[in-house]
Amino acid sequence: MTLYRFSINSRTPYEQGEPAREPVHAARSAPQPKPFSTAESSRLRERMMDAKLRIHASIIDEVNLATIEKLPTHELRPQVYDLVVKHVNNERLVLNDAELELFVDDILNEMKGLGPIEMLLKDDAINDILINTHSQIYVERGGILELSEARFKDEAHLLRIINKIVSTVGRRVDESQPFCDARLLDGSRVNVAIKPIAIDGPLVSIRKFSKRPYSMDKLVDTGSLSPAMAALLSAAVVGRATIMVSGGTGSGKTTMLNALSSFIHPNERLITIEDAAELQLQQPHVGRLETRPPSIEGKGEIRQRELVKNALRMRPDRIIIGECRGEEAFDMLQAMNTGHDGSMTTIHANTTRDALMRLEQMVGMASFPMTTQSIRTQIASAIRLVVQLSRLSDGKRRVVSIAEITGMEEDVIQMQEIFRFHRTATLEDGTIQGEYLPTGLRPKFLSSLAAGGINLPSSYFDPGRAH
Question: Of 180, 172, 184, 187, nearest to 203 (Cα)?
Fold first, then answer.
């Protein structure tokens, strides 16, 4: 398959098996250059960025665009290499072999990938990519934010990549709809905001998709929770206790939900409901539902509430809602109270008690004539465990509390904390030290677990015993 519309007489080194090319416009006997100053490096990067985009635009004009998506990268690259060499020579850029190879990678990223952020997406050490206008890209490594050297040429360049992202999953972003949630093809979660709501220029937040989802054992190994806490949660999932995972932004709620779901029996039918599909369930019988935004005419929107209602007609054993954030909370509670034990969801809240208050407010958004006591009774009947996560100041994500809902007393939902994280010290480098402690209260649902053949050692709940 031919990529370009003109012929190139000489074959590429990939086809001939030749040794590496001579540097383009580089003399072997050139004296060792002096190190660049910061200003010179900045100007060099600017010139290289300008040249890369000019060459990219020129190549796009010359290639057969219909073939780009069909060609695998290993076939596309040699042809792009020749085109890049031609244009690099025309631009009179001084590049050695290594620089030329990187230049070809950049052009390929512009053609088939997401431009400057493509290499960041491939870096497994990066968890989040935060784009603050075209000139600034931050990344999170190990819980710490740092400024990346990558950037976009200008706002138009960034907008082109944004439109490439959102259009892939059938979404749009423009002045009439200046923000949206989307996902990359690998499942990474994306949020976009553009002008007029993003005053200085487009803002993009990417939560990267983990190729290997965290297991509960891995969470224990990284110190996110104790073995006793992990044993309780895994037993609760097997015993079909309904669980709500609570926490702030970036606290690891989706990671925890994925880890919990690994204990669901493979014979069970699961239906997931999300704004942007990102859950990584390992079971063989999973149906995935995703919301849809309205069209340009304002029609065709499908909200989570409609998906929850539809899921009930799909014969699910459990329903997993990626994030409960609105009126769908009412339908979710109805599902949990009518034979869908073991369902799970996440919610944004700072404490376990706050999570229940937020859930109560969401149920009220459904506009059903229900008293406060009636709503709270529904919650107390539907939810068994609330798992509270927090992203601490040292960047580490921990389960800071596991609480059980035990029922109602008058019009108050009764809760008891089973485990908590006790902070003991903060080291000079900012690392937080602490221990996971049982409160001494035994979960009331242990008897129902035992009836199902699931037994937990009583020592897990001994008061004051650190795990």
Answer: 180
